[in-house]
Amino acid sequence: MSILNILMEILIAVLILIGAGFTFLGSVGLVRLRDFYERLHTPTKATTLGVGSLLIASAVFFSWQEPGWSFHEVLVAVFLFITAPVSAHLMAKAALHLREHGETSLPTETTLAKHDGEAAISLGAEQARQNGLSARAQGEGAIPEARR
Amino acid sequence: MKQLLPHPILTLMLLGLWLLLVNSVSPGQILLGAVLAWSIPLYTARFWTAQIKVRRPFLLLRLAGTILYDILVANVAVAILIVGPRERIRPAFIRMPLRLQGNVGVSLLANIITLTPGTLSASLSPDRSELIIHALQGDDPDAIIDDIRKRYEQPLLDALEQLELKRGVLGADAEPPHGAESAEPSKPQ
Predict the structure, then answer these.
(1) Cβ-contact B29, B22 below 8 angstroms
(2) Which residue ranges traverse the bilayer (chain B) (predicted)?
(3) Which terminal Cβ of chain B has fewer Cβ within 10 Å, N or C?
């Protein structure tokens, strides 16, 4: 085994250890942090640096061991970096919404029918917007009724 | 030209994506990728209601470098926060007025804020003028806003330009900025 092989193995091992370490810290964060919003922070950490260094390790290993380069991993990173923040954003948004409005009941049959009709007919931008606003205003009015 | 190649950036990205996916740069794959990258934007042209113009590509590259560096530094900082005593974590919601307009720019900024650990974009006002950020260490909200402004928002403002395309049925709801739904950032690129 040549010096180069040993160096490559050390490099890959270090990268894998860093990745595993940060993924582990992300999980520790889930346990230690106190509320929902704080806990949302830790998965982004695990996906960025944790998965990031695991992917670099994978690219280095397969480019070294097998003929040709291996850059699949870039795609994994790109898709992860695009989708992870979107899901975190949606969860935070849903949590904020629940905190502000509480659990609301399901929309009534009439509001659902209105939205159906709206989607079926393609209206001009301004008209569609006004319809959306009025449908929503009526929908808000309908909620207390449904609660009774 | 405009008709044949409606979204040059999308075409380049698709070609790159294809070559990464097949993991090869043989002439055959480049040809196949080029055909796909040319035809998919044509076929899906009606979905894109806005076109992005990159005025300064090198600024975007530098921004990518800044983000990678910040991810590294912030990850270590947050790791120390998590392992350290809990009293040191003082979370806070921060309201950040946005100067950036256009859904691509805003969604990029929101994504960047979430990717850098320690801050999380939580909600966007319906008229896209304000972003609510949750910070793990929110003692000094002004410093955080200032940091985001200088490091991420300004380069995005300088580098991107969004042109609205009015086209077909989908073009009709290509936002007047006070759209009916609270605009969830979509990811057109």
Answers:
(1) yes
(2) 63-83
(3) N
